Amino acid sequence: MFKKILIANRGEIACRVIKTARKMGIKTVAVYSDADARSPHVQMADEAVHIGPPPANQSYLIAEKIIQACKDTGAEAVHPGYGFLSERTSFAQALEDAGIAFIGPPIGAIAAMGDKIESKKLAKAANVNVVPGFVGEIDSTDHAVEIANGIGYPVMMKASAGGGGKGMRLAYSEKDVREGFEATKREGLASFGDDRVFIEKFIESPRHIEIQILGDKHGNILYLNERECSIQRRHQKVVEEAPSPFVTPEMRKAMGEQCVALARAVGYYSAGTVELIVSGADTTGQGFYFLEMNTRLQVEHPVTECITGLDLVEQMIRVAYGEKLAFTQDEVKREGWAVENRVYAEDPYRGFLPSTGRLVRYRPPAEGEGVRVDDGVYEGSEISMFYDPMIAKLITYGKTREEAIDKQILALDRFEIDGIGHNIDFLSAIMQHDRFRSGNITTGFIAEEYPEGFVGAPAGLRLTAKMAAVAGVIATVDAGRSALIEGQLNGPADQSTDWVVTLDGAEHRVVIEGDVVTVDGETIVVDAPFVPGQRLIEAVVDGKPLSIRVERRRTGWKFTTHGASHVLRVLPPHVAELSHHMIEKIPPDMSRFLLCPMPGLVTAIHVGEGAKVEAGQPLAVVEAMKMENILRAEKAGTVKMIAAMAGDSLAVDAVILEFE
User: Fold this and answer.
1) Which CATH number fits the domain 107-131+207-335, given the four candidates 3.40.30.10, 3.40.50.300, 3.30.310.50, 3.30.470.20?
2) Active site residue: 228, 292, 346, 623, which one?
3) What is the DSSP string of 145-181?
């Protein structure tokens, strides 16, 4: 077995590979940029090598630096993780030329399947169903429009070397193609060093199913069941699960065998994933289309590990060393259910705009009892504009799908992140959504269920009553402490156990008597251990766990639980009565300004001072985390003043322009 391997990646996937290597008794080498000098993967590895400044094209994407690091440390093999150099044939070839093993598939398979255009040609030649589209070079925007008109709208424009939701644009009209084609090319070039684009028919209301493939160098290729990845936003996976609630045993077998045949056609070994698009109405297992094959480990591989009991990273290392697979297709297990949520640095309350900054507080839920957290950050880490915005992956496992989902809700409530925007509330809302829990999902789920954006998960009457009860309990504890401080109150006798809790505009009378709490006359049993200053309350309410992230406010608390934040005003009854006479402060009107929605780089200003604009007209383009964001006019108006220009780096809420 290898004695030392280098991980040519960063963040959570680098930590993930190091954990398995350590378990196998293999020493590890990390590489890092200036931005990652104090990152967990650097601390975890046995050795670490600095490879350059923060931009990936000056560090993680330079093969020569990776190979030199191998030579300097004596690493015998390289695990590329995902992204960066994981699907670069030139990198795999350079490693081979240097006598260093690549923990991944053969070069020919990467070349054949890693390029989306070439892979579609190969799949078509092998009689595999492919989505109708144009497979070839596209010369210009006019050529793209001609192709899209010929295929019929809607169409999807994709960067040939793309992945992870980057370099993709959906077009419903010629106007969309003209606006998005060049942006797709630029994103492909910026993220993957390849600006080629292909266009294919967009199948509406589809399900996204993928088959995990694993092969060795001795001709054995297996499929390790399927994953459901239909919950996506802007073509970026958000929730993954295994198995799929849609796939039948017959479909699983048909899909798996066809994917194995495709892998065999290119002499595949190591881990890989064949992505398929399936009509939600299809139950035959034959109505699926090949999308692409990812010749690497997938972000969502943990859910497959949960239901099969296999360590895919370990299998990749053993295959790279030349070992045979130690099990057959019939021995591949499928037990229980696993769900993975991707915790991103983005603000769902502001249109999912990227968020950068420091993790002032980072406390993931405790692992164990079916909860797993894969991350590569710590409290104090910087979420940089240079890399992917994923903070962590939260994986839960249960005997049933419902159990795995319920564990997600509880674990998300226990996930503490401060300092940047994050999508924990949104993930919890999805887990609670009736349609998601039914399994009736498509790739359009988020757009269909949140057409006006996300405003938080609705709180039912029972949850509202529980929050009011907990608020009364902690207010009593807080008042008890204040009563013991000289000069604050008149001593313990002045401690109140009667409260008016205002929550979401409604008042609730809460009376505390030991563990029994009365909310509007209804009795609720509450066990909510609380110490003033505590940030996470893990309560048991009416015999069921309820975790609440809590922040002290002047007249109460801010509770965050079950996918939403609620500001609770908690006052003694006589004070609550007086509060009705307080004048509410009205926030200033900022509607005449176009504000920068996230920290980013202005790449274009489309209007000038005095210009008259219509609703929906593009005004500016801001790039953040290698994604271009077109800012449009919300209503018709005249531009009074331009405050920014192309090339400016702006902070969130910085003024870009002002309307009259």
Assistant:
1) 3.30.470.20
2) 292
3) HHHHHHH-SSEEEEEEEEETTEEEEEESSHHHHHHHH
